Each structure stands twice: as C-alpha cells, then as structure tokens.
C-alpha cells in the first residue's frame, strides 16, 4: 500500500533509516569496547527490541514496570527497569513478573534502603531473588544515591539481605543529552561521572563492592565514555533520531547531528488554508508532542510548524514558498520521539513510499 492511502494522522517509520541506525549504533558501541543495552522507551515494541538484540544488543532497558511486562510477554529475555518503584502494589507486580518469566533476567533500579528492604521481603516470601542496580546521582538531580558513604551502605545492605542481589550501578546524565556542540557535551558528560569512577577504584574495589555492570549514557553522550569504566550504554533515541537530537551537533558539525538518520515521522493532511501564508493540518498536540520544541516540516525549508492546539497544526510559510492544497499530505519530523510515539497505537514501517509492515505499539501508555 502506498502511504498516500494511509489515513492521518499516522505514525510512520522509515524502515531503511531505522535498520541503518540500529546497525550503526551497534558498530559504534562495539568499537568503544562496550555493550549496548538500548532504551526501548523510544519505541515500546517487542519486535523492534528483538531487531536490536539480533543486531548485537545484549539486552534492553525499559523505563517502567508496565513496559517490562510488555517486553517480557513479547519474548525479550534480559530487561533492565531503569526507574525505581515504590508501594506494595508495584513491588508485588515485580515479583509476579519474575514468577511469570523464570527464564528472563530482570534487573530493577533502586536508590534507597526502602527499596532493598521491601523488595527483599516480597522476594523472600516468593522464594526468589531480585537483582538490584543502584542509580547514582551524576548531575541530573533526579533519582540517585550520592556517591560516597551512602552508596557503600546501600551496597552493603543489598549484599547482606536475602532475596536481593547486587547487579551494579546506573549512572545516567539525562540533563546533558541535548547540550549543543560535540566537544562541550562530551567534556561535561565525562566530568560529571569521573568522581564515580574514582570512588569505584579507591573505595568500592578494595571493599569487594565493585559493580559488575555500570550502565548509562544516551544518544547524546555515548561518545564521551570510552575508557572510563562503563560496561554498557543505554541509548534509545538514535533509533528514530528526532528533531531535538538532530540539532545537537556531532564530530563534524556544531549544529547538526548527522550520525544517525531521522526515521520517525508523522503523516498529516492539510485541512484548511485560510490565507496564502497559513495552512492548517490535522496534527496537533494530541499526536505531535512539543515538550522539546516544534516538529520540522519535511522537505519544506521555508515552512514553520506552530501548534494550533490539541488537534490542529499551523504551517506558516515564507513568501515565495509553494502553496499546499487541501487534502495534500504533509510529513513532519517530531521534535521528541518518545512522547510523540506514545500518542499512537500503530507504527507503520515504510520503504520507498510503501507501507511494508505495521507494529502495534504494545507499550503505548504503559507508564504504570
Ligand atoms: C535512564 C535512561 N537511560 C537511557 C535513556 C536513553 O536516552 P536517549 O533516548 O537520549 O538515547 C533514557 C532516556 O530518557 C533514560 O531515562
């Protein structure tokens, strides 16, 4: 089917660009001597996670327990849950997840003694052991134990408690992923985690507390980590390369990142043309997120997208730009792939303008 036959708004993925991005990131991470554990919050589709694993990824990350349930159900066997959980309901779901998939490796991120005590209690009652990874603070000031005595005490607590085991540490600096300029981003990314690696060598290793896994990094920062001590990289957005990431710059260009190709797009239709310089399309905030800026109109240099509210997108064109026609399809590159994808039930895979496959976005809305 030609994409012109798709109803709109629809979410489409350029299959060739996506496959090249998967291959390229795997090669780059291999070259750094690290393992890749892609963050699947970007796509939420078990079949796409399997493509990443088939290309060499050693497992996946998910942000939430709900996403872990979807991925385990879809046959993925090595899953790191990168956000701490709290409350008896969640902890019981984590235990049930382990029991339902005894041949799958799950690692749960934590940062507090509460997590150790409560997860261990539930795991012991179920006669299982839950692997825990400690998130450490590295500049983002979101979750994360402080590097220092607090970290030592938390590792100790895991090591002496039945029902849990110590898998390693997570050091993710989300606040630096979109710093503009390759050198400045790399410098900042390294400098915020150097104290952690110094602490591992000076204190944790002599105490027999060296983490087996050190996990972190994203599409913006993975290049900074060679030789530091990370064992795996959690990048996710490289798969789709949204407009926000395209603007961060790379080794050769200060303002344009050309390492990966844009693969995620929203297909929309012109529904109104009130003036020659203002076109209205059927894609507003309920399908195109704007938390990281406005989407880009593909192939139309002089045309700028402005949100028109929940259901409308407004295209402003500079003088001299070719005018759109009512009913014409317009393709947009989302500014933020994660929050845009979460608005759709289906992702259409497209090659040479034809829909060749489609995936149900099984983790859509699974922020639970
Ligand atoms: C903990 C964690 N790791 C990795 C990633 C992936 O980063 P990116 O999508 O920027 O590559 C994210 C994204 O939000 C994250 O929250």
Secondary structure blueprint with pairings:
Blueprint: E1 10-14, H1 15-31, E2 35-36, H2 46-54, E3 60-62, H3 65-73, E4 78-81, H4 88-100, E5 105-110, H5 113-125, E6 130-135, H6 149-160, E7 164-170, H7 182-204, E8 213-216, E9 232-233, H8 243-246, E10 264-275, E11 278-281, E12 296-297, E13 303-307, E14 313-317, E15 329-333, H9 337-341, E16 346-351, E17 354-360
Parallel strand pairs: 1-16, 2-9, 3-4, 4-5, 5-6, 6-7, 7-8, 8-9
Antiparallel strand pairs: 1-10, 10-11, 10-15, 11-14, 12-15, 13-14, 16-17
Helix pairs in contact: 3-4, 4-5
The structure holds pyridoxal-5'-phosphate.
Key phrases:
single chain, 368 residues, alpha/beta, TIM Barrel, 9 helices, 23% strand, D-ser_dehydrat-like_dom, D-serine ammonia-lyase activity, Threonine aldolase, Ala_racemase_N, lyase
Q: Give me the secondary-structure category.
A: alpha/beta
Quantity of strands, as a count: 17
Write down the overall mean pLDDT: 97
| SSE string | EHEHEHEHEHEHEHEEHEEEEEEHEE
Distance between the termini: 35 Å
Largest sheet: 9 strands, mixed
Ligands bound, unique: pyridoxal-5'-phosphate
**The CATH superfamily title of the domain at 15-239:** Alanine racemase
CATH class of the domain at 15-239: Alpha Beta
- Stretches where pLDDT is under 50 for at least 5 consecutive residues are none
Which fold name fills CATH's third level, the topology of the domain at 15-239? TIM Barrel
Q: Could you say which overall geometry the principal axes of the C-alpha atoms support?
A: globular
Helical proportion?
Answer: 25-40%
Rg is 22 Å
Percentage of β-strand residues:
15-25%
What is the number of helices?
9
């Amino acid at each position: 089917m030609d994409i012109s036959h798709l109803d709109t708004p629809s979410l489409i993925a350029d299959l060739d660009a996506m496959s090249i991005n998967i291959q390229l990131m795997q090669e780059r991470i291999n070259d750094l001597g690290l393992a890749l554990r892609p963050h699947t919050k970007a796509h939420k589709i078990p079949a796409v996670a399997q493509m990443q694993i088939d290309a060499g990824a050693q497992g996946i990350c998910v942000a939430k327990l709900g996403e872990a349930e979807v991925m385990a159900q879809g046959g993925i066997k090595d899953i790191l849950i990168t956000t701490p959980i709290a409350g008896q309901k969640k902890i019981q779901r984590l235990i049930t997840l382990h029991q339902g998939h005894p041949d799958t490796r799950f690692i749960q991120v934590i940062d507090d003694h509460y997590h150790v005590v409560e997860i261990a209690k539930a795991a012991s009652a179920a006669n299982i052991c839950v692997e825990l990874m400690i998130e450490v603070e590295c500049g983002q000031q979101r979750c994360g134990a402080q590097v220092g005595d607090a970290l030592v005490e938390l590792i100790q607590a895991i090591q002496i408690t039945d029902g849990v085991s110590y898998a390693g540490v997570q050091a993710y600096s989300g606040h630096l992923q979109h710093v503009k300029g390759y050198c400045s981003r790399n410098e900042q990314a390294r400098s915020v985690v150097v104290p952690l690696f110094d602490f591992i060598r000076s204190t944790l290793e002599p105490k027999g507390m060296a983490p087996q896994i050190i996990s972190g990094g994203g599409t913006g920062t993975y290049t900074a980590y060679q030789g530091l001590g990370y064992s795996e990289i959690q990048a996710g957005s490289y798969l789709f390369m949204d407009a926000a990431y395209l603007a961060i710059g790379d080794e050769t260009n200060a303002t344009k990142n050309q390492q990966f190709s844009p693969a995620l797009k929203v297909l929309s239709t012109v529904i109104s043309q009130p003036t020659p310089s203002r076109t209205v399309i059927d894609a507003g905030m309920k399908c195109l997120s704007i938390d990281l800026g406005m989407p880009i109109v593909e192939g139309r240099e002089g045309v700028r997208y402005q949100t028109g509210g929940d259901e409308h997108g407004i295209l402003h064109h500079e003088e001299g730009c070719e005018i759109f026609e009512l009913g014409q399809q317009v393709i947009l590159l989302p500014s933020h792939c994660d929050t845009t994808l979460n608005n759709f039930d289906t992702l259409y895979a497209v090659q040479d303008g034809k829909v060749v496959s489609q995936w149900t976005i099984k983790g859509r809305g699974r922020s639970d």
